[in-house]
Every structure is written in C-alpha cells, then in structure tokens.
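BUG: 3D viewer hangs when loading the predicted structure for this chain

Environment: internal workstation, default settings.
Expected: structure renders.
Actual: progress bar stalls at 90%.

Input used:
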Amino acid sequence: MRLVEIAMASVKTTVGATRSNVERALSVIQGAAGHATVIALQEQLLGGYPPEDLVQWRGFVDDQARALRGLVAATAQSGSVVCVGMVVARGDHVYNCAVVLHRGRLLGVVPKEKLPTYNVFYEQRTFARGAPGLYDEVLGGVPFGDLVFELDFGTLAVEVCEDIWSPDGPMRRRCYSGAELVLNLSASPFRLGVVGTRREMLATRSADNQCTLVYANAVGAQDALVFDGGALVFQNGRGMFAGPRFSEGVWTTVVDLDRTRRLRNENTTWRTDAERFAETPLSERPRRVRAQGATPSRSGLRFPVPPGRPPSFFLPEPAPPADPQGTFCEELLDALALGVGDYFEKNGFAYIGIALSGGRDSLLVLLIAARYAERAGRLPGALIRAFYMPTRFSSSETRLAAETICQELGVPIAVVSIEEAFERETEAARAMLQPGEQLTPITLQNIQARLRAQRMWNWSNATGGLFLQTGNMSEKAVGYTTVGGDLMGALAVIANLPKTVVIYLLEYLRAKHGYRGIDAVFARPAGPELAANQEGEKELMPFAVLDACFYLYAGEKLSPHELVEALQSLFAERSREELDGWVKKFVRLFSQSIYKWVQSPLSLHVGNLDLDRERALQLPVVESREWMES
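Structure tokens produced before the viewer hung:
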C-alpha cells in the first residue's frame, strides 16, 4: 500500500485582503499541517476571488507575492506539500496560478489554461493562459508552466478550476506523464443543481484519466457570487470523500495511490492511450520538478474503509432517504443566507434593514436574514430592523402578516406611515405639470414606492445599516418595479429568484416551521398594494406563465413564435390566443424594462440565468423588437 493523507481546505477570503487571507488560511489548516501529506487550498486564495480588473494594478499582484512568502515561512517546518491559488506576474502578463510549496521552498507555479469568459466569468479580459509544454521561471527563479511534481509518495499535478471542466484540459497530458494525484484548486460559484453536475464531471475526469482527483473549493460570498465549498475526492472514478458545503474548514481523508497505479495497469485502453501520448514531442509535454526533502511520515495512516457497521465494500453507503424538496430549498436558503451574511460582515454594516410590505417577497428576505443571524450565533432581533410603511392602499391583512412574522422571529418592527408624505409629494408633483397635464395612476404608485426607499436610505445613513432590496426576478424582468423605489437597496437578495420559487420556498418554510406569518401572507393574493385591489397576476399574467416565458425567452433564447408553441405544451388548458397575448406582453415588457434592471443593486447569483447586465445576461438597453417581426 502507498497511503497518503489529503487535506482540503475551504477558506472565507476577501478580495484584496492578502495578508488577512493568509492568516485565515493558516488558522483553518493548522490542524492538518504537519501530518497531512498534501494540503490543497482554493483558487486565488491569497488575493481573493474574483479580483476582476483589480489585477491590472501591479501593486495588487506584487502584494500577493509578498503574502506568499509569509505562507511559505509558516508551513516550512510542517513537511506537508501545500498547494495554493494566487495571481502571478510573468513579464507583461498576469496569470491565475496554482503554486506548490514544500519545506520552505517554492517547487513550481502552474498557470490556468482554460479561462472562462461566459456567464459570471470574465477571466480572458485580464489573464493570460498557460499552454502545453510552457516553461519559464518566475518569482526569482521558480519553475513556471506545464509541470508535474515528483515527491517521495508519488507524482503530483495541480490545476485551477476551469481546467477540469474541459475534457481536453491539462489533466490528460499530465496523467499520461505520470501524475497519479491531481489537485484542482477551485473557486466555483454555487448555482442551483451544480453539486450533481460537479460530482458527475469530477467522477468522469477521474475515470477518464485513471487518477486520484482532489477538488478544493472556496467558500463564502464575494459581491454577488456565493461559493459553496464542498471538498471532493475521486479515485479512478470512484467517490472516496465528500466534505460539507457552505462551511469553512479543513477536511482530511486517506487514499491508497497503489490502487490508482494498479487500475492504470489493468485498464488497457488507458494504457494504450498513454503509450500513444509518449510519441508527443517533448516540447509539448509537462516538465518534471523533483522535490527535495520528505513529506510527513505516513506510517501511522490506516487503510481507508467504507462507512457502516460492519463496514462492507459491497453494500451502498448508509444514508437517509433523499428529500428532493428539502434538499433544493435548504441549499438555496443556505446560499442566500451566506451571501447576505458575508456582504454584511465584510462591509462592516451595523444592522440589516428590511422594508416589509406584508407580501411574499419581503417576508422571504426577512426569513433569509434571520437564517443568517441564527447561523452566526446571533438573535435575529439583535441584528435586524423591520419597517412597515403603510398608505391608504395598505390592507390590515398585510400589516398583520408583517407584525406576525416579526413577532415569531423576535425582530422589532416599526410602523411608520407615509400617507402624509404621499399627499405632499403628490401635490408637489402636480405643481411641476403644465396646463392640461395630469398625474398618471402609475405615477401615484411610484411616488409611494420611492418614499419608502428614501426612508430606508435615510435609516441606513443614520445607523450604518444594510438596506436589503426585496424584489424577485419575475417582476424585475417585466419592469413591475419602480426605479428609485422598490428596485433600490444596497444588496438584492432574491432578485434572481423567480416568483414561483419564492412561493415554493415560503411553502417549504411554513411546513417546516409552522410560521403563522406565512399563513397570513398567503391569505391575500400577491400584489404591491400601491393602488386599490391590486393583484400581480391580474396586472401581468399567471406567475407560472410569466416564469415559463422568462426561462424560455431569456434562457433558451426562443423567438416569440417558438415561445407560443412551447407554452402550448406547458399549458394545454389555455387557448393559443390567450398564450399569444401573454407572449407579446412579456416580450414587450421585457425589452422595455432592460433600462430598469441595469440600474438595480448588486444581486446574489444562485442560478444559471441572472438579470445582471455585468454578469450573466448582457443585453443592450436600447433595443428594437423589429427582428422578432419577420
């Protein structure tokens, strides 16, 4: 047997906090350093991820090199091989790299080759890429490029995040060059469904390359992105270890590298492919770097055995039955709470403020903020401030819902009417009009929304509080929101959640916790209460239809005609004429509303489709629909 102990760390970092990031990483891995054979830290740990255009400041890049020296010194005596992500300069270019350290020496720097520039990523904008066979020196003589590392336990390769998402990534040639253990240092953001996709992909890469594959992922939130951690180990396609998600920490497991060697020898297809790769010119193959000095003693390591009592290699791992609704809701709520919490903590806010309407959206945001407070070990009432600001159009039912949920959570709520201010602002707006001009109904609605936002900003300024925006993605997509009003806030918590998902989460939380406040919210049809008897579905369309339109148009990029055809399959009980009318309304409202949602606050990214112009969906503000009409 050739047993090695692998440690994988997930560390909460902040972009730009180079020395603090190193200190935090050292505190996380201190329990593993000295006995773990290898310690894998995440992508760009030193400078934080994503740094975006900050890497254009060479001082930021140089400071990571200084911080690296501190990490090298702190781990020099441990004997563990430490792999960490950082930005490294080489000539005129900067690279997203994995750096390998051992016993006070920098063994090598390996640049990322696959630079994503899609969805939420913009790496080709600022980074240069690695390449097969690339070799140079950086950081005062440290090998740089396409490298594999020979250590006393075997041959190691390292790579960075996106490199593993391509079947033609560097792992293939490095494994053909002898790498048995591959470390992938990642900062892979959370999105719905990613954990299943991620595990399948990692298992496939491990099997295709007949290697032991270690995945170390970042945890925490940076701006709009949420990183869910979740360390994973696969050996020749078999899952060996899965660490907890949404948690900072270090996790260790033991693998037998002789198993990888044996399976390579047994797999004739892989062996044949490796023999064919041996014909590749030397200039296109990885360079070998030999480490001096030993890794920690492995004599005390024990052979990894399957879980269960008694342990069995033939029986499935004992696990509770899966609950699809619970899994979906819990991981989504965890991601959102982590996003709120890290934004709150890293920016140094004193309180969290929420304008409660007594409706579905703001109630869910309150519950997410309360979830963060509880996870942080604080009482929601010590951290959160809620405000109910009624006018003549506010109902007793919504006030009851707002007050009930606050009572259940122990959150103080202030009822501050804006009726008088509404009247004054209405008169002031009329005074600005010319003869014959009149205030429109939508103007009267927007005045109320803007007054509420103004008061929340005033509260934020006075207390150092974080003003959370509470709108959902469905209504944002069609402009059912007010610029300067309910569209405003410092952080948009559920702006990338469709309305149907908002309702689904509330139903789940009601069933789990029995909140009477949710019952009170559901007792009344959803609507903004900015005019008499408003109902969102009557003014727009059924939320299920609206969300289907949004997904198929913005996500699947169907034309309006194709959209109608698809909706007929989804909503067979509806007439084609009705569906056609809804599609035309959706497309018109969506196109007209782009100018609105480009002005919205930073919003948490939790899916594959966001209404964030600087992230997932980049559309021109000035746009004609003429192309749809042919």
